[in-house]
Amino acid sequence: MLVGTLVNTGAVIAGSLIGLLLGNILPERLRDTVMKGLGLCTLFVGIDGMLGGSNALIAIISMAVGAVIGELCDLDGHLNRFAEGLEKSFKKGREGGPSLAEGFVTASLVFCVGAMTIVGALNDGLTGNHEMLFTKATLDFVSSIIFASSLGLGVMLSAAAVLTIEGGIACLASLVAPILQQNPNTVPEMTVVGSILIVGISLNLLGVTKVKVMNYVPAIFLPILLCQFM
Fold it and tell me: Which domain holds residue 150?
């Protein structure tokens, strides 16, 4: 059940190691340009995934309620404090460079929030189909090389988040399979909400906004409930 998750985790670790080795070789301008390009590609993936739903009201309610839950639980704050705690245990990758917390949080959100993460992990848990997570692993491998060369060791540590979140979704999927299979619209609506969040991530990567995307993550799971009534 977790084959896809393990491959994705390994891809992030391998790509991060390569990126760390190339960190002092790749020019800053090149890294910045490639990261902006990845931001645009992330935007495309998000917009494409947003078009698969059939009830916009589910996405709206999910985002609103999910934001309230996330803010009350301060998910973004907890994640940042956790990363900052790790940072105290490790030195910055290079003087004047980005903090370990920045690399961990940015990479964790990019690798763990979005349509491919949710749908891929659900397929992994429900049917044992690893194809989407294998595809995601390829994309994350390339992304982690660039991210690690720019953001340092925190990117490699995000592999733990990939393992935990994708593996958790896959395990939970096997438990809630009867509910998800009752309504064929549930997974597409979850994908729409996840894709909205990945658009937010892309805007952060492009420097357009500073959205606390982590505080919206509960919204991804609310369509499981809403699709039973709408």
Answer: 3-226
